[in-house]
């Protein structure tokens, strides 16, 4: 289903149908046209939509994602565009008021109704409700809505050119400049992983609401569920009862003495579990708020994936006038507390060996846990074409990847409710951010007022979702932009800090706290935490900014290093309490490139491919020098560590090169994730790893683990493997030869088991006396911890030929998944070679692949030798993933693997085109 259908249905179900005395005309659908001075025709259009989508549907432009259309379609972003509705039928005359409600306009828009100018809008992230009663009364003929969208790039350039506009020393421009002057998705101007289309249009649903006397229409619903007495920045007391605070934003006129009650029902049976009136009600001209303490039932808790069940309840908020029900709104929600603990390390933590400083980790329902996940960027440059199915596939891949948290990176858009709902169902925590990134922003009154409305609307809208984990002010402002500003312009640095604090602390923090008690707030991602909180101070949170004490840890880390010579040197990785960003870019697969690029351009360094690589962001749109630098980094990474593909067939060579960049990316992420997870048992007590980035916005070289249409890169399979609860990992210091093996677990109880260690040659024979290594070692790992089970130096081992040796590590242990009574057996396989892959004496492993269409199982065998990076590849037209991929296969081992189909456009006829290859094939010339 298309997202606008879902939204319309949700709106209808939860708001409209339930409220009597209101007449609603949905403006969604195709009764619109699009025109522009740059077009000589009028084009059929729809709502919700954006200009590029309507032009594409009308056949006036080719696929915006094709080839270099990002450059060719720049004229669209520079033009003005008008959406005009067909005459609107079915409006009533005998009403008290008529409203035009837009869930979202992107961005600089003049709205008129019946030829009357109604409003100018300048914020993509706000909901707008305009009273058009007068305009309707004066309307001659059937009403028409007209929305004129200005060019966002031109508008911000005009703002920037004004003499009063502020200038900052290090703001990072995208492909169109001056993005910080607009409240529009910042990555619409391009980002280092995405295109610059600067779309415009009515990107979310809209409706006309007509109200009779004494009726209201609900615009937005805030539901806040917290433990009695809970305060955003303190750990909630789990022994306290739940409070449900409900607040409705409305238009119309409330009854003189309204009452409000709250009903909790079972989502499946519909049984009413409790219904309670709110004793205290606060009413303003736009909101009605009440709260109840849930004392007569004990709801089952909602847990993130892997930590328990995702128990959900329906909560209905009912507004009454005396005994008569006026309005009801239902939201599906869950009972949980989620807290970002940034409090000082306690003496008992110190006694446990935790380094001094402050905590920086999440606690769900009072329990600390290891956050495993990645960063979510906008899933498409054009939100109106993002479907529920696409999001469901993506989130299913997140769950399959053993992830429990995504950081919804700032500078995309606040996610739609249907996306949070999918996360609520699956147990994916969404660390959510306000849309500010890598820049300082204006702090004049008009700008701040606009931001305040955006913040209040979105905090209230999203708060009912149990998946909501955190609000953060923006991206890399505290860790990157402020320090750089100091370096470049030390004289004005106090002004930059003051501006930063004014926006993210003095303005946004109180707005968050006033509208939710259940969610923590951090002014920026990444930070060194705070020193103190004083809500009556003008700057209520005093940030630490800098960690000045060696051996102390306070915050989270953000790490990118494009010098791949040190990629596997652990001492180059940051040590902190939580890793919220780290990564490296790679090429997507051939199948994905073929969606967007003509066959003639399928070369590693073709001009089309280089120009689609936005790392590094070109100084001018269309220039390629900066992009070429990013291509060079991928090339060097391959050359440093892997066999260099040299195939005579150009497409085969291109495919192998794309694959090679993915080998490096996967190994680099694996190395860091193992390091960060091991940190859970080190003094830093590291409790989170969110890599950059989950998925792609288009077909291009990026940091993503999942390509634009849902195909997994190697990295997503590999991170899936090392995000399993119990893992065994070798840590090799290649400079000294030291090798240590750790078992790491994020279970909430100890886990016991054994690791077998097998040294083999690459042809698969056992090395004599296991090279002096014990074959079996038992382990016992405490809750969320790590244990070193073996350490040696490679030089002390009896390995005859390092080029022809591999250590296979297999762990097996028994323990309990959190909140589970039944014990589970956890297994994990890993491997280690005493040289990097390019230096190994690879031999043909003799891979054989077969498929049984009865059981739908693929069987892979290595008949001649050990197969490294065994890679099953499936053809275009299918989306899904193999149960296992990118693995090591030992001769004699038969892997039976199923494919989980998420989307099949080939009617099941594709299995015969599945292929298998390994590192050996990378090296082979043909
Ligand atoms: C960080 C992120 C993004 C960026 C990514 C890759 O800076 O916060 O802004 O896309 O790294 O460069």
UniProtKB/TrEMBL annotation:
* Catalysis: reaction(s): Hydrolysis of terminal, non-reducing beta-D-mannose residues in beta-D-mannosides
Question: Gene3D superfamilies this protein is in?
Answer: Galactose-binding domain-like, Glycosidases, Immunoglobulins
Q: In which pathway does it act?
A: Glycan metabolism; N-glycan degradation
Q: Which residues form the Glycoside hydrolase family 2 immunoglobulin-like beta-sandwich domain?
A: 257-336
Where's the Mannosidase Ig/CBM-like domain?
A: 738-810
Coiled-coil boundaries? none
Q: Specify one Pfam family.
A: Glyco_hydro_2_N2
Q: What class of enzyme is it?
A: hydrolase
| Cellular compartments annotated | Secreted
Keyword check for Hydrolase: yes
GO MF terms listed in the record are: hydrolase activity
**Assigned EC number:** 3.2.1.25
Q: Where is the Beta-mannosidase Ig-fold domain?
A: 842-921
Family named by the database record: Belongs to the glycosyl hydrolase 2 family. Beta-mannosidase A subfamily.
Please describe the quaternary structure of this protein. Answer: Homodimer.
Specify the protein name: Beta-mannosidase A
Record lineage: Eukaryota, Fungi, Dikarya, Ascomycota, Pezizomycotina
């Amino acid at each position: 289903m298309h997202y606008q259908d879902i939204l319309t249905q949700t709106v209808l179900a939860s708001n409209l149908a339930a409220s009597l005395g209101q007449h609603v005309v949905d403006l969604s659908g195709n009764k619109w046209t699009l025109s522009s001075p740059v077009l000589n025709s009028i084009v059929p259009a729809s709502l919700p939509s954006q200009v590029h989508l309507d032009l594409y549907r009308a056949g006036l432009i080719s696929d915006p994602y094709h080839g270099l259309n990002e450059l060719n379609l720049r004229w669209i972003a520079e033009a003005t565009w008008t959406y005009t509705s067909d005459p609107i039928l079915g409006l009533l005359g005998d009403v008290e008021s008529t409203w035009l409600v837009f869930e979202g306009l992107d961005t600089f828009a003049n709205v008129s109704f019946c030829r009357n100018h109604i409003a100018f809008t300048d914020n993509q992230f706000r909901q707008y409700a305009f009273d058009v009663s007068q305009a309707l009364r004066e309307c001659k003929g059937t009403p028409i809505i007209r929305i004129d969208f200005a060019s966002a790039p031109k508008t911000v350039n005009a703002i920037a050119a004004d003499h009063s506009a502020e200038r900052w020393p290090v703001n990072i421009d995208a492909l169109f400049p001056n993005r910080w002057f607009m409240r529009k998705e910042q990555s619409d101007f391009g980002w280092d992983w995405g295109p610059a289309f600067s779309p415009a249009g009515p990107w979310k649903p809209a409706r006309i609401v007509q109200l009779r006397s004494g009726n209201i229409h609900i615009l937005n619903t805030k539901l806040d569920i917290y433990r009695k007495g809970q305060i955003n920045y303190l750990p909630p007391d789990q022994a306290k009862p739940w409070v449900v605070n409900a607040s409705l934003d409305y238009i119309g006129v409330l009854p003189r003495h309204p009452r409000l009650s709250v009903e909790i029902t079972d989502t499946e049976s519909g049984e009413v579990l409790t219904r309670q009136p709110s004793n205290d009600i606060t009413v303003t001209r736009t909101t009605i708020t009440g709260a109840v303490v849930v004392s007569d039932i004990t709801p089952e808790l909602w847990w993130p994936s892997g930590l328990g069940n995702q128990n959900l309840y329906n909560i209905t908020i009912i507004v009454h006038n005396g005994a008569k029900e006026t309005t009801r709104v239902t939201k599906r929600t869950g009972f949980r507390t989620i807290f970002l603990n940034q409090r000082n390390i306690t003496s008992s933590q110190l006694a446990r060996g935790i380094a001094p400083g402050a905590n920086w980790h999440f606690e769900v329902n009072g329990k600390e846990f290891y956050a495993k996940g990645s960063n979510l960027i906008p899933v498409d440059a054009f939100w109106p074409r993002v479907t529920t199915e696409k999001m469901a596939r993506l989130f299913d891949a997140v769950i399959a990847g053993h992830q429990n948290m995504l950081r919804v990176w700032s500078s995309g858009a606040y996610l739609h409710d249907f996306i949070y709902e999918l996360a609520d169902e699956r147990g994916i925590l969404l660390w959510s951010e306000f849309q500010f990134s890598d820049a300082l922003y204006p702090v004049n009154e008009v700008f701040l007022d606009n931001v305040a409305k955006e913040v209040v609307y979105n905090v209230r809208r999203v708060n009912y979702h149990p998946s909501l984990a955190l609000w953060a002010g923006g991206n890399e402002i505290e860790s990157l932009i402020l320090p750089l500003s100091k370096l470049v312009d030390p004289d004005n640095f106090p002004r930059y800090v003051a501006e930063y604090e004014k926006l993210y602390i003095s303005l946004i923090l109180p707005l968050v706290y006033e509208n939710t008690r259940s969610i923590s707030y951090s002014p920026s991602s990444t930070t060194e935490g705070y020193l103190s909180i004083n809500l009556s101070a003008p700057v209520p949170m005093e940030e630490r900014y800098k960690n000045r004490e060696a051996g102390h840890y306070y915050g989270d880390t953000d790490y990118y290093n494009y010098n791949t010579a040190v990629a596997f040197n652990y001492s180059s990785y940051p040590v902190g309490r939580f890793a919220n960003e780290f990564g490296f870019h790679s090429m997507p697969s051939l199948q994905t490139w073929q969606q967007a690029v003509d066959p003639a351009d399928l070369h590693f360094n073709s001009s089309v491919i280089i120009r689609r690589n936005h790392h590094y962001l070109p100084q001018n749109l269309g220039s390629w020098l900066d992009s070429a630098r990013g291509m060079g980094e991928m090339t060097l990474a391959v050359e440093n560590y892997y066999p260099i593909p040299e195939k005579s067939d150009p497409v085969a060579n291109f495919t192998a090169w794309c694959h090679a960049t993915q080998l490096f990316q996967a190994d680099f992420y694996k190395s860091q994730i193992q390091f960060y997870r091991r940190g859970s048992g080190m003094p830093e007590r590291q409790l989170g790893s969110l890599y950059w980035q989950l998925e792609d916005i288009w077909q291009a070289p990026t940091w993503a683990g999942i390509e634009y249409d849902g195909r997994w890169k190697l990295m997503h399979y590999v991170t899936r493997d090392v995000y399993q609860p119990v893992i065994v990992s070798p840590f090799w210091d290649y400079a000294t030869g030291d090798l240590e093996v750790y078992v790491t677990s994020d279970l909430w109880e100890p886990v016991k088991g054994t690791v077998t260690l097998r040294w083999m040659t690459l042809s698969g024979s056992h090395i004599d006396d296991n090279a002096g290594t014990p074959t079996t070692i038992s382990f016992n790992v405490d809750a969320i911890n790590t244990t070193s089970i073996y350490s040696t130096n490679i030089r002390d081992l009896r390995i005859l030929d390092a080029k022809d040796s591999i250590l296979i590590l297999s762990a097996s242990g028994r323990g309990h998944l959190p909140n589970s009574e039944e014990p589970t057996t956890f297994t994990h396989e890993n491997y280690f070679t005493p040289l990097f892959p390019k230096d190994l004496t690879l031999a043909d492993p003799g891979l054989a692949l077969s498929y049984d269409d009865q059981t739908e199982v693929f069987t892979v065998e290595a008949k001649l030798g050990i197969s490294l990076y065994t890679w099953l590849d499936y053809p275009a037209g299918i989306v899904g993933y193999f149960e296992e991929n990118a693995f090591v296969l030992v001769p004699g081992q038969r892997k039976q693997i199923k494919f989980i189909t998420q989307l099949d456009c080939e009617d099941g006829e594709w299995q015969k085109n599945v292929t298998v290859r390994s590192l050996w094939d990378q090296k082979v010339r043909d």
